[in-house]
Amino acid sequence: xxxxxxxxxxxxxxxxxxxxxxxxxxxxxxxxxxxxxxxxxxxxxxxxxxxxxxxxxxxxxxxxxxxxxxxxxxxxxxxxxxxxxxxxxxxxxxxxxxxxxxxxxxxxxxxxxxxxxxxxxxxxxxxxxxxxxxxxxxxxxxxxxxxxxxxxxxxxxxxx
Length: 160
Description:
The chain is 34% helix and 13% strand.
């Protein structure tokens, strides 16, 4: 996958790539540690980097960044609900679906389409039995990243 992110910074578990507009962060993706880095050039890019650094120092840091993205009405409802899940807490796909009068599979689909993971913390949505998926995957780097983020927030899952 070729990333078109304007900023790429190294974190302990991956390179995070993201793009911004004058209105806010538009997208964020997790990239392999081998990805070429690209420091922020804009005030918004610097603001996002500072917020991510604060999260790494304090797993209970609450992101307060302007967001500039679009999705379906349903996806936006799911993402808003996910954004309310506090650090160190999880909800199952079913619990989130019940809150939204929806189905767990539909919630999972919206989680997989989240354009700004970490900031909209879909890593905090888990399966009824186990860690669940992440970034539309059940294995590999995505699940390693989800495990790292949850452990950073004090939540540990045994291997599925």
